[in-house]
């Protein structure tokens, strides 16, 4: 399946998520107090791809559309959102989001909120999209900084497209990071162990 077809399928799912109340809003200017900017993953720190190297895009202000299938900013304060997208020459992509909140307590609550959205993503997609068959999996927690949790979501549409995503939420002090790896296919080809290493690196690199 071409990347164009894959993007169209995921865009349709994102619209379904929006109808369920997942609103992707840009943070208001000056709404968050500026702090030391967290550091992002580099391309070499993503799970290795067997046939293609990773390319990292620039660090960009705002919430990434690529996370919109499972994660949103609805009901969340307008914190300092920044993200970086990664791509390969084939059907695999990734994105990292960082959110600097006002305190460690707020970051803890935000991390739980994002993890809950990922945990319930498959059920929400099926409830709002009758042509979607989704499965969520829990791959456990990681003992890094203030902690991280790794999960997976596999999405099959009636049109025949199948996508699998690995997602993690981690925290260091008042900063939360969300990492997503995504590829055509199912859990069979998902590099869970390598993604756990990527998540650990992402949280450790924040500061």
Features of the shown structure:
207 residues, alpha+beta, eight-stranded antiparallel beta sheet, 4 helices, 8 strands, globular, disordered N terminus
Q: How would you characterize this protein structure?
A:
The chain is α+β, with helices and mostly antiparallel strands. 27% of the residues lie in helices and 30% in strands. It contains 4 helices and 8 strands, in the order αββββααββββα. It has helices at residues 3-19, 104-119, 121-128, 192-205, and strands spanning 55-56, 60-61, 80-87, 92-100, 132-142, 148-157, 162-172, 175-184. Strands 1, 2, 3, 4, 5, 6, 7 and 8 form an 8-stranded antiparallel sheet that branches. Strand 6 and strand 7 form a beta hairpin. It is globular. Mean pLDDT is 86; it is low at 1-33.
What's the helix and strand layout?
Blueprint: H1 3-19, E1 55-56, E2 60-61, E3 80-87, E4 92-100, H2 104-119, H3 121-128, E5 132-142, E6 148-157, E7 162-172, E8 175-184, H4 192-205
Antiparallel strand pairs: 1-3, 2-3, 3-4, 4-8, 5-6, 6-7, 7-8
What's this, in brief?
With 207 residues, the chain is α+β, with helices and mostly antiparallel strands. It is 27% helix and 30% strand.
Indicate the radius of gyration in whole angstroms: 16 Å
Strand content: 25-35%
SSE pattern, N- to C-terminal:
HEEEEHHEEEEH
* Outline: globular
